[in-house]
Amino acid sequence: MLNFTEAIPLSLYIHLPWCIKKCPYCDFNSHEFSAVGLEEDAYVDALIRDIESELPRIWGRTIHSIFIGGGTPSLFSATALDRLLSATRARLNINPGIEITLEANPGTAEADKFRAYREIGINRLSLGVQSFNDKNLKALGRIHDAAEALYAIDVTRKAGFENFNVDLMFGLPGQSIADALHDLEIAVAQSPTHISWYQLTIEPNTVFNSKPPVLPGEDAIWSMQEQGQAYLQEQNYRQYEISAYARDNHVAKHNMNYWQFGDYLGIGAGAHGKITNVAEKKIERYTRHKIPKRYIELAGTNAVITETRVLQRDELALEFMMNALRLNEGVATRLFSERTGMLLKTAEKELTQAEEQGLIDWQLNYLKPSVKGQHYLNELLQIFVK
Fold it and tell me: Is position 242 within any domain?
């Protein structure tokens, strides 16, 4: 039986599933709105019903961060998002000074719209730039070019967003090491508070999976990563997670909650959630219906949830480590007990094995991956597979 002794932080994730064009590498639940229509008002109504239906599950708990992802959430008007956030504030306990992030596509950047986003309380933007090279952007199927990416950043800053993230990829089709580093140089010159820099991976059920592009070789990708990490460190971007770099302590609070195995309420088409039920001593994961039209019809009813799974005791060590060991500085050891409801000694055998192999640094008060563990994370996590 699990025993929870501390309150577990709770975040809210809101999924807006429409985009202008599905990218060939994307495996997220996104739908081209030109084909199905952007049902903005009906979808916001459904999200509000969805929140209301979840109130018994999270009653009395405080929301510590909100992330609006997609799809392309910046297709939605500020009026619609204002109605959604107002309804959210009226129904949930919202932490004062909460971080509210909106994902935005540079191809949808508008000065008036971004300014309105800031006015309704959104205080962090995450811009899906991916590259500042037009050739690379075309290979990725993006709807914007490099000039539009720079314009979007300028609009973001002028709209009053002091905190914003730039998403970049490396290991792209036809990309050289110099190309990858040049992307970082351009990004750094724009002074974002946060950079997400991650390797392109070919995911199942994507166009790239069925028609694989020619990617750089492993040695080139390794050089991109090593040289890029060194450059970002020189520019005072601290790497605190595998693909996350922040200046001046501007870590992504919402993502930190994921990585520290906190709870998150996921609403919207295809959204995933993780909720700890302290009274019933269990941790549940659930998924919502992914087709927008059906989601709108079913929101507010039990039928909107297509899958519910209670995490078993023998899964929890792996579930915790899959998140916590992504963090360069790891986590306080007490978090294992607080977030899994189990004593750390239940994973002592695996931790000892990982330590003997030089994959972790395990002390009395903290646990973190070693440099070797960061490079061989998959091998490290395999130790915790039951």
Answer: yes
Burial of residue 293 (number of CB atoms within 10 Å: 0-12, 13-18, 19+): middle
On whether the CB atoms of residues 125 and 114 are closer than 8 A, the answer is yes
Residue 276 domain-assigned (yes or no): no
Do 240 and 322 lie in a common domain?
Answer: no
In the structure encoding, which two tokens stand for residue 77, read together?
């008007």
The number of distinct structural domains making up the chain is 2
- CA-based torsion, 322, 323, 327, 331: positive or negative: negative
Helix %, strand %, coil % of the chain (to 5): 45, 25, 35
Spatial contact of 354 and 373, defined as CB atoms under 8 Å apart: yes
Would you state the pLDDT for residue 206? 84
Which among 324, 367, 271 is positioned nearest to 51, based on CA atoms?
Answer: 271
Torsions phi, psi for 250 (to 5 deg): -85, 50
Q: For residues 94 and 216, state if they share a domain.
A: yes
What is the CATH number for 331? Answer: 1.10.10.920
Q: Are residues 85 and 212 in the same domain?
A: yes
Asked whether 231 and 216 are in contact (CB, 8 A), the reply is no
* CA nearest neighbour of 73 among 139, 151, 16, 128: 16
Q: Within a domain: residue 113? A: yes
pLDDT on residue 36: 59
Residues 118 and 244 in one domain: yes
Residue type, 3: N
Mean pLDDT for back-to-back runs of 10 residues, the chain (386 residues): 92 95 81 74 97 95 97 94 98 94 93 97 97 94 93 97 97 96 98 97 88 93 97 98 95 97 98 96 97 96 97 97 96 96 96 97 94 94 95
Q: What is the pTM of this model?
A: 0.95
Task: Please give the full DSSP string across 217-253, using - where no structure is assigned.
Answer: PHHHHHHHHHHHHHHHHHTT-EEEETTEEESTT---H
**Of 233, 257, 281, which one is at a domain's C-terminal end?**
257
What pLDDT score was predicted for residue 260?
97
- The residue type of 103 is E
Supply the pLDDT for residue 281: 95
Containing domain of residue 368, as a range?
A: 313-386
